[in-house]
């Protein structure tokens, strides 16, 4: 019996950059950049990527840690 609530695939991209890489007095830049990466691209309008993922039953998200930033889609 298919269970469509369970994720079929998760795609993650990890970058070895995080809060540890911020200059003193510039805290939050890594997290801000994480959000900027979700904005428009040369090929996709703002929100279009999330819309494509959502139409296919998925979600996308990201997080920033001390030494990594990760982006993922689960469909």
Strand content: 15-25%
Alpha-carbon distance between the two ends: 18 Å
Q: Provide the spatial order of strands within the biggest beta sheet.
A: 1-3-2
Return Rg in Å: 15 Å
Q: State the CATH topology.
A: Cytochrome Bc1 Complex, Chain A, domain 1
- CATH homologous superfamily name? Metalloenzyme, LuxS/M16 peptidase-like
How many helix segments? 2
Total domains: 1
Assigned CATH class: Alpha Beta
Order of helices and strands: EHHEE
Shape: flat
Q: Mean pLDDT, as a whole number?
A: 91
Describe the overall structure.
This protein is an alpha+beta fold and 75 residues long. It has a single domain (10-74), classed as Cytochrome Bc1 Complex, Chain A, domain 1. Helix content is 21%, strand content 24%. The protein has helices at residues 29-36, 48-55; strands at 10-15, 59-64, 69-74. A 3-stranded antiparallel beta sheet has the order 1-3-2, covered by helices on one side. The chain starts with 9 loop residues before the first strand and ends with a strand. The model has no long low-confidence stretch (mean pLDDT 91).
């Amino acid at each position: 019996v298919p269970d469509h609530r369970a994720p079929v695939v998760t795609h993650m991209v990890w970058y070895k950059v995080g809060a540890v890489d911020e200059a003193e007095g510039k805290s939050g830049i890594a997290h801000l950049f994480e959000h900027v990466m979700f904005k428009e691209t040369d090929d996709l309008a703002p929100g279009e990527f999330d819309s494509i993922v959502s139409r296919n039953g998925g979600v996308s998200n990201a997080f920033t840690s001390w030494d990594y930033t990760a982006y993922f889609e689960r469909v």
